[in-house]
Each structure stands twice: as C-alpha cells, then as structure tokens.
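Sequence only, no structure available. Ideas?
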Amino acid sequence: MAKFTSAQIKYLKSQRLGRLATLRPDGTLQNNPVGFTFDEETGTFEIGGFNMGESRKYKNVVANGQVAFVVDDLETVDPWKPRMVEVRGTAEPIPNDDPRKSRVRIHPNRVISFGIE
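Reply:
I predicted one. Tokens follow.
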C-alpha cells in the first residue's frame, strides 16, 4: 500500500473530482471523470456515481481491477501552476443490491504528484 504525504492528503481532501482509467476486457482503456472520497486512515479512495453498478467502469473493475486515478487542477493560470496526484493500483467492486449505490474502492500501489509540496 502506498503512503501519502501530509501535503498530498490535504490536497486530496480539498478536491472532489478525478479521472478514473480502467482496463476494458478488449485491452483498451476507458477514462471517465468521477466524484470520489479519500479515506486518510486506510489510504483508499471510494468512487460512486450515477448507476455505478451498471456502468462500464464498474464492469471493467469486476473483470480486471487495474486502475489509474488522477486528481488535478490549476492553482493559478498566470503563472501556470498545475497540481496533480496520480494513483496507480487495484480496485475492488463494492456491490449493493441497488446498483445505483454500488461503489469502487481503489487501493493505491504507487503515488506520484507535482505542484503539491
């Protein structure tokens, strides 16, 4: 499990939108904007969304579990100052009887960031 710095944790807790890349069964990648929460104690991310349990990204996680997740923004545009945390790891499906309430939990193996510290 990857460790997060205090600066990365502070940044992640200030954001709510990221991009989840999943591996499709045919070997191509799918990348979608998603809402997320970050659990500082476990170092995991939970991703939900509209009808998550029926979504392609959820099915990709069920089939494979390899993911990349990026949270980024621009601190300023003049001067240009992007900030970013990228996580690579595995994801597990968190099913629910109501597919709209199913979730994906990401377990990071690697964390990369810039503009944060």
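The chain has a mean pLDDT of 95.
Hope that gets you unstuck.
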